[in-house]
Every structure is written in structure tokens, then in C-alpha cells.
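Below is how a single chain appears once it has passed through the pipeline. First comes the sequence as given, then the structure the pipeline wrote out for it. We keep one example in the README because the format questions we get most often are answered faster by looking than by reading.
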Amino acid sequence: MNLTPGGNKIELFNPSLGAVLVIGVFHGDEPQGDYLVRRYYEVFHDTKLMMIPCLNPDGMEKKTRTNFNGVDLNRNFPAKNWVLGVKDDYYGGEKPASEVETRFLTEVIEKYSPKAILTLHAPYKVVNYDGNDRAKDLALRISEIIGYPVEENIGYPTPGSFGTWAGIERKIPVITLELDENIELIELENPVFGILKMLEDY
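Resulting structure:
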């Protein structure tokens, strides 16, 4: 059981060695990924993708960016650039990988060695990537499907980020897809499902 401090379970669908991993809801106030991953899995139950619909169920329950402990999970990874920061919405925790959710995800990656990772965020409407030319090429393919621009740099510092830890330091192509939060979720189904179907054969 992968229980959070708030008593919620982090679910992993279709654990598979070497699959593409799709992750929703790093930040609890960005719930789009939970709906889209669950809906895709409901429609395409035989998917080859490995999926975590909601990494931060406590934050989603509270509608907060951070988790139960007030930590921004996307600043809590044991990357070389992790720093101890102030306790605001971007607080990276007392130490790297201090959080249950972070450790769960690092263990999944170490156990299953995904060949690429897609994380679903909001609201910037960009395709951000971390890693080598394979990550850039994958970002360009995703951009063609959803029509968002590709951005290598999100525009602000992200110490201890998942992209730095997994994409840059571990050289796994990591895509951060920032979705439009101002449209109905059903309108995101076609483009996101198109991206996920492409990733099935990646």
C-alpha cells in the first residue's frame, strides 16, 4: 500500500518494465491529469502505458499546490540543485526525497526503468522538456498534436525538480505538458488521448 500522510492511496496502473510512464497531479491545484489518465485507462484498458493518475492525492483533496506536509513535490527530488528554501508554495521540504510521494515515484522509476516520462500540469499551454535530443524530439511530436509551443526553459528556477532529477541527471526523456486550465476537461481528451496513443508506440 502506498499511503500518503493524509491517508490516500497513490495508484500505479499497468506497472511494466521499460514502458512510457504518464504522471498526473504533481500539484493538487492542477487536477486535469487525474481525470485524463483515468479516462484514458477506462477507454483503453489494454494500454501499454504505465500510469500514475494522481501523485498528490492529499493536495488534490485540499485543492493546494503542495502535499499534506506543505511540500511542493516538484521541488523535493534528490537532484544536485536541490536547495532548502522558505516555507511557501514552492517549499522543497526539509531534505531531498523527504516525502512519501517523492520516494514512491523514485522507486517506481528505479524498479521499472521507463523509457520516457510524460507529466501533466497546468496552466501555461507549453510543452516543456528535460533531457537530451530524444526529449526535444518527443516534445516536438507532442507539440504537433496539441498545438502548444515547445519550451526548453519554463522561465523560472526549479531546484529539486523532477525534470532535473529524471531528465537531466538520469537521461530519461521527460516531458512536462502544461495544459490549458480555462477549457472544459472533455475538450482536452482528443489532443491528450492523441499524445498518449502516440506514446504507446514510442
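The mean pLDDT is 96.

See the next section for the split statistics.
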